[in-house]
Amino acid sequence: MLAVCESRAAARAGEPAAARRALDDVWAHLWTGQPLPGTVPVSEGLARAQTAAILSTLADPAAEEHARSAIAVYTQTKQAGMLGGSYNALARSYLRRPEPEPESAAAAARAALAAAP
């Protein structure tokens, strides 16, 4: 989870190379075991959601694919917090396209609000 935080911070600070290095670390250390007390292991679903958020901050077109994958995972598991965040990342990816799609972004933002319990 520290690598997720490091990557998000680097993306927000305008340091894409550092953000991508930390993302590589996230994906190299996915947790596939049972939940552990006191830790926040990063599963593939969480990695996809965070990758979508980070790449959308970097205006990377791959953010859209990760957001859609995370939405599929969290729609099935009904984890509203991650679902809402994934829709937000999708909305940002629509706005950061070479030709922005504000209507699609607004629809994704509405879906994020609807995901909240």
Helices, strands, pairings?
Elements: H1 2-12, H2 16-28, H3 44-57, H4 62-77, H5 80-95, H6 102-115
Radius of gyration: 14 Å
Task: Please count the beta strands (DSSP E, at least 2 residues each).
Answer: 0
Number of contiguous helices: 6
Overall morphology: globular
What is the number of domains?
A: 1
Biggest sheet descriptor: none
Mean pLDDT metric: 91
**Span between termini:** 25 Å
Strand content: under 5%
Q: Helices and strands, in N-to-C order? A: HHHHHH
Output the structural class. Answer: mainly alpha
Portion of residues within helices = over 70%
Low-pLDDT windows of residues: none
List keywords for this structure.
117 residues, mainly alpha, 6 helices, 0% strand
Explain what the structure shows:
Helices cover 72% and strands 0% of the residues. It is mainly alpha-helical and 117 residues long. The chain has one domain (2-115). Helix 1 (2-12) packs parallel to helix 3 (44-57). The longest helix is centred in the middle third of the chain and has 16 residues, at 62-77. The mean pLDDT is 91.
Brief overview:
With 117 residues, this protein is mostly helical.
